[in-house]
Amino acid sequence: MNTAEASRMPRWWPRSMASRIYVIIFTGLLLAQGLSFGSMFYERYQSATTVMLNTLEHDVGTSVAVLDRLPAAERPQWLPRLQRDNYRFILGPGDQGRPLVSARSRDVTGLIAKEVGPAFQVHGATTSVSPERYQVHLTLHDGSPLTLEVTPRGVPVADWLPFVLIVQVVVLLACAWIAVRQATRPLARLARAAEGLTPAVDNPRLAEDGPTEVAHAAVAFNAMQDRIGRYLKERLHILASISHDLQTPITRMRLRAESLGDSSARDRILDDLREMEHLVREGVAYARSAHGGEEAPVRIDPAAFIESLVFDYQDSGQPVTLVGGIHGVCLARPRALRRVLGNLVDNAIKYGGSAEIGGSQDARDGLYITVSDRGPGIPEDELDEVLQPFYRLEASRNRDTGGAGLGLAIATQLMRSIGGNLTLANREGGGLVATVVLPGAR
C-alpha cells in the first residue's frame, strides 16, 4: 500500500493484512450470531405472547365466573389463588383515569370482554405507573367493581444463557484467529523469503507443501530463485570467459608496445592496456560479488575486526582513526566485509585525505559501521547513482582518479549478498559518511 492509499484509510482501520482479515471475519461472524440470536429471541417472544393471549382470556373468564358466584365476604380469600405472574385481581374500581394507549392492551381487553360477555361491562384504563401496565375493569352481577391489573413481563431468560453467549463469542474469536493465522502464515513466510532473497546461489528454498494455492506460490518462488541463480551463473561465466580470452591479446599488445622505442605513444599505449586489464579484473570482481564468493557467513566480534583493520592502515602510515566503540556479535563474511570497508576507507583517503571508522549496535537492526571523511562529498541527487555499476562523477572521469566506476557497486553487491546494506550520506560540516549495516547474530 502506498502513502496515498494509506492516507485515505480511517485511522482505526488496522494496517496489517492479518488484522484486517481478523476484523472482517470476526465482525461477520458476530453479526451473523447476533442476527440469529435476535431472530430466535423475537420468534420466542412472539410465541410466548401468542400463548399468553390464548390462555389469558380463558383463565380470566374462569376466574371472573368464580368470583361472581362467591359471596362478597369470601372473595378476598380467593384473590391470591387466582393471581398469576402477569396479572392479579383487585376488588374495587381501580385506576379509571387514562385510556388504553397500546394495541396489545386494547386487544387483551377486547378478548376478555368477548370471553366474559357484555354483562360484566368490560373496559380498560392505563395506570399511572407505566404505559405498558394497564387495568381491565369489570362489574359483577351484584354490582361490585372488579379490576384486573395486567403487568406484562418480558420473555424469561435462563441464568445460563449469558454464559453460553460468552462462550460462543470466545469460540468465534478463536476460530477467526486460527483461520487468519492459517491464511496469512504462508504469505508471511513468502514475504520473509522475498526479503531475504539475495543474488547468492545458496538461498534457502520454500517448503512446497500446504494448501494448493500456497504450494503453487512456493513452487513459483523456488523456480524464480533457480532462474535468477542460472542467470547469475551465466553472467559470471561470460565475464570470466571474456576476461580469460582478453588476457592473451592484451599480453601480446603489451609485449609489442614494450618493443617500441621510448616515446610518448608507447607510454600511452601501455597506460591504455593497464586500464583495459583493470576494467576486466573489476568486471569479473563485480560479477563474483553477487555471490559473495565461496565464503560462509560466520559470527564475528565487530570491535576486534574493525580495530584490526584500522591498525593495518595505521601501520602502513595511512591517516585512519577509530571513533566510538562497538559491542556485541554480528553475522558476516569476514573477507567480503574487509573488502567493502577497505574500498570505503581507500575512497575516503583518496578524496578526503583521511578516514574515520565508527560503529554502533542496534538490537533490532543489527550492526552499523560508518566510514567518514572530510572530502568534497557527493551531490544529493547522485548519492544513489554512484552505487550503480560503471557510474562515475563528472569531476572524476580521468585516468588518475576516475577508476572503472565499479568499486562502490562491488561493495554494495557484496553487502546485499550477505544480507546487509550500504548507504551514502553527506556529512554535516562537509564530507561523506558511508554506512554499512550488518545483521546481528541471533
What would you say this structure looks like, in words?
There is one protein chain. The protein is an alpha+beta fold and 442 residues long. The protein folds into 3 domains: 1-195, Beta-Lactamase; 199-291, Helix Hairpins, CATH 1.10.287.130; 296-438, 2-Layer Sandwich (Heat Shock Protein 90). Helices cover 53% and strands 13% of the residues. It has a 5-stranded mixed β-sheet. Strands 1-4-3-2 form a 4-stranded antiparallel β-sheet. A two-stranded antiparallel ribbon has the order 5-7. The longest helix has 53 residues, at 17-69.
Secondary structure topology:
Layout: H1 3-8, H2 17-69, H3 75-82, E1 87-91, H4 103-116, E2 123-126, E3 134-139, E4 145-150, H5 161-195, H6 212-258, H7 264-289, E5 298-300, H8 302-315, E6 320-322, E7 330-332, H9 334-352, E8 355-362, E9 366-372, H10 407-417, E10 421-426, E11 432-438
Parallel strand pairs: 6-8
Antiparallel strand pairs: 1-4, 2-3, 3-4, 5-7, 8-9, 9-11, 10-11
Helix pairs in contact: 2-4, 2-5, 5-6, 6-7, 7-10, 9-10
Transmembrane segments: 21-42, 160-180
Main location: membrane
EC number: 2.7.13.3
The end-to-end span amounts to 31 Å
Neighbour order of strands in the largest sheet: 6-8-9-11-10
Strand content is: 5-15%
**Structural domain tally:** 3
Assembly form of the protein:
single chain
- Average predicted confidence as pLDDT: 77
Q: Tell me the total number of β-strands.
A: 11
Largest sheet: 5 strands, mixed
